[in-house]
Amino acid sequence: MIQSLLEGILMGGVYALAALGVSLIFGVMKITNFAHGALTMIGMYVTYEICNRLGVVPYVALPLTTVVMFFIGYIIQQGLINPIITAPSHNQLLLTLGISIILENMALAIWTPNYKSITVPGFDKALNVAGISINKPKVVAFIFVVVVTSIIYVILTRTDLGRAIRATSMESEGASLVGIRIKNINSIAFAIGVACAGIAGTLLTPILYISPSIGNTLLLKCFVISVLGGLGNIWGALLAGLIIGVVESTSGFMLGGTWSEMVIYAIFILTLFMKPTGLFGRRVSRG
Amino acid sequence: MADKVIKKGIINILVAVIALLILLSPLVADDYLLGVLITILTSAYLAQCWNLMSGYAGQFSFGHAAFFGLGAYTSSLLYVDFGISPILGMFAGAAVAAVVGLIIGFLSFRYKLKGDYFALATLAFAEILRVLFNNTPALKAAVGITIPYVDNWKVFQFGDRKIYFYTAFVMVAGITYFLYRMQKTKMGLYFIAIRENEDAGNALGIDTFKYKLIALTLSAVLTALAGTFYAQYYLFIDPSIVFNSTISVGAIAPCIIGGVGTILGPVLGAFILTPISELTNTYFASFSGMNMVIYGAILISVIIFLPNGVMGIFNKNKSKRKLNLNIKLKSNLKQIQ
User: What is the ipTM of this complex?
Assistant: First the structure.
């Protein structure tokens, strides 16, 4: 029981990092990014390729993956999302879905549907602390999550770039009036969001098998977490990630694996009904 | 004015001629082509169902797989377990979908879910149903249902594919005619008012809650019929097929390609999209995934370059006005927030 609780917290952290991207992108552009799961999957494959080509462990590949994913995100935003930034929201949603379909099937064409995995030497054995055995990659992943989230928090609160991003997400017209270039900010925010997905992907490579369809399961978790944490809210996403991680592992422990999915969806629907602004959200402005 | 009448007459004749050609096509089509035509028609039908609720009434659903799956499962379970003919089961499925649709709609609209939030909620409901059917032994769990082949019209099975084709044709023609008529009724106009500006509609005294619920339930009922048709045509269903989000996407994509909220758009979209994906499927048979990449690329290019779908080309002035209205609405909403 304690073990599943702990595993839940550790995994929840990684989900939270991926969800952070969804949250950030929605906060700035008001777009629900259906490509986020697929981008996480691409992050996993990028890590896989780097590890195989250079013979390094995923954690060493992390900076390179982050940069690659940042650019992928930047290009996608510039080329595909900017043209439809004022389009009705169902077109935006469908566009990101189209991107997701393309990425998933490109991965299928390039890497085949066969499962791939990376083992980190010395990490295959579980860590034993006081009778509880914990998977080492999960612990390392969690540490990275805390570090990365802190970095993003500092960027968002302490730098000019971060202030511009937050201003855009609060009031994009006002931000453009005071001289913020909304287009640039949108691209950078999207790129950071995709980089988050990429980092989460890297951290997941030693934990999960890589396959082109893995994005789908991750995508729904990202949505649940980002809505529960409040779209646009970083610490909310982190906390919500931990909650979902714990709920998943404990309900999986008590009810069996597949039913835990249902518990998570139920939480999702209840959140949408009761408090669509999330745990720390302000009162809903239902206009 | 006279110009408009002539234009309308030409369009009507054109539609009638094309419909006639499609109707006569089984006379020359081989089995493969007939199969493709049936796929096109079912996809057009599903897209019209989605169009009713999301195109006309503006409630963007991402969970039509829920109703499709319920239709397929209800009729198939009744047939396999109780020997009740799917012809009756079809209506039972529609009833089940109606109830579930009412529940989803009541809760979502009661809590005033809109736009992306509503889409996510419908997606979550469809996923819940998928997990439920996947894990409940009484509902055959993940094994799915294989419907025994008996070739008897009394149990909605036809040895000849042509009859499936004509059934699908009648379904598409029926729902298209229904939408055509609905446009001019009070209900249809209310739907459009809700789509364009719900608050204004409310202020003018439209019971928007009620009409949104009607749109969703109607769409759910019609989608369930497609589920039964699918089950009886392929004779095999399982949760990962009929409750899959690809069904939901399959209902949306032709509509977006053809033109959301237009009468002929979804049909046109299906006639564009399905042949392309069939062709790429055979052409890239050895290169799995490529056909879906092209599918996604088409979807993206249409959204970027033809935001009002292919139908948008024909009524350009109208669509321009609508786009402006949309932008205006959006900026107004942003200001309010």
Answer: 0.87
The answer to whether the CB of B176 falls within 8 A of the CB of B48 is: yes
| Residue B20 maps to a domain | no
The per-residue pLDDT string of chain A (287 residues; one tens digit each, 9 = 90 and over) reads 778 888 888 889 899 999 999 988 988 888 889 999 999 999 999 999 999 888 888 888 899 999 999 999 999 999 999 888 888 888 888 899 999 999 999 998 888 888 888 877 767 666 677 667 777 888 888 899 999 989 988 998 889 888 898 888 888 888 888 888 888 889 999 999 999 999 999 999 888 889 888 888 889 889 999 888 887 777 888 899 999 999 988 888 787 767 888 888 999 999 888 877 777 765 544 33
Report the run of H or E that residue A247 belongs to, with start and end.
helix A234-255
Q: How many domains does chain B have?
A: 1
Interface test with B, best of A176, A244, A265 (most B CBs within 10 A): A265
Residue B61 lies in a domain: yes
> Which chain B residues touch A172 with a CB distance below 8 Å?
334
In the three-class reduction of DSSP (H, G, I as helix; E, B as strand; rest coil), residue A128 is classed as: strand
Contact A102 B297 (CB under 8 A): yes
3-state secondary structure of A134: strand
Rg (CA), chain A: 18
Cα A195 to Cα A138, A206, A244, B77, B334: the distances in Å are 19, 18, 22, 46, 28
DSSP A210: B
Question: Which among B141, B157, B13 is positioned nearest to B85, based on CA atoms?
Answer: B157
Reported pTM: 0.88
Q: Do B119 and A32 touch (CB under 8 A)?
A: yes
Q: Which residue has the tokens 């893995």?
A: A214
Domain interval for residue B162:
30-336
Contact A262 B128 (CB under 8 A): yes
Q: Is residue B246 a part of any domain in this protein? A: yes
Alpha carbon distance B14, B24 (integer Å): 15
A95 touches chain B (CB under 8 A): yes
